Hints:
By secondary structure, the chain is of the alpha/beta class. It has 2 domains: about 40-120, Vaccinia Virus protein VP39 (Rossmann fold, 3-Layer(aba) Sandwich), CATH 3.40.50.150; about 125-223, Vaccinia Virus protein VP39 (Rossmann fold, 3-Layer(aba) Sandwich), CATH 3.40.50.150. The protein has helices at about 5-10, 25-30, 50-55, 70-80, 130-145, 170-180, 200, and strands at about 40-45, 60-65, 85-90, 90-95, 100-105, 115-120, 150-155, 185-190, 210-215. The chain has a 9-stranded mixed β-sheet with strand order 3-4-5-2-1-6-7-9-8, sandwiched between helices. A hairpin with a 2-residue loop joins strand 3 (about 85-90) and strand 4. The radius of gyration is 17 Å and the shape is globular.
Amino acid sequence: MNPDFWHERWQRKEIGFHQQEINAHLQEFWAQLAVPASGQVFVPLCGKSRDLLWLRARGHAVLGVELSPIAVQDFFAENALTPQVTRQGAFERYEADGLAVLSGDFFNLTPALLLGVAGVYDRASLIALPPALRTRYAEQNAAILPAAAGTLLVSMEYPQNEMSGPPFAVREDEVRRLYEKRYTVTCLFSKDILAENPRFRERGLSALTEKVYRLAPRAVKQK
């Protein structure tokens, strides 16, 4: 999957993955990461998610990264925010009211850009990527994130042969393979949500399980 795929999705407004409402799992489980209100939150592949607004309302400075400039510009315009736009390394940085989004390729991020990050929220990043890129994605996160930053990860499982992604099926054993070297992985939530999502049944799925994980850094002692 190359960048053109996502650019075309945004140009054609084929963005069924975008949620108008604040994610319920973010609201229910975010506190379990115990990120200080003053801590910055990193949201990879953020699109124009309104979840950024919810995190900002909790007091966090928020840093997203998004490949599509259309998504970035829409986020600020739709939320009546006028961003200051500057160049930061390989990215255009859009920033307003404690919300910053780096417009560019996630894989061009460097540790220096994420120095202040205290927590990560991943709702639609890992499951947006095919298997080969998921390994690279996890390795990139390990390379650029501060060691003490935990992650709230929302994922899904379904018979991959029944539907081509994205979103892709990411089984719990894969989540653990990708992250357990660096994190203690705890599954906080698991539920079959197919009945609540008829569009996936229409695409041929017989089951669809949503899971939420807390990734707690092994370098940080947990209570």
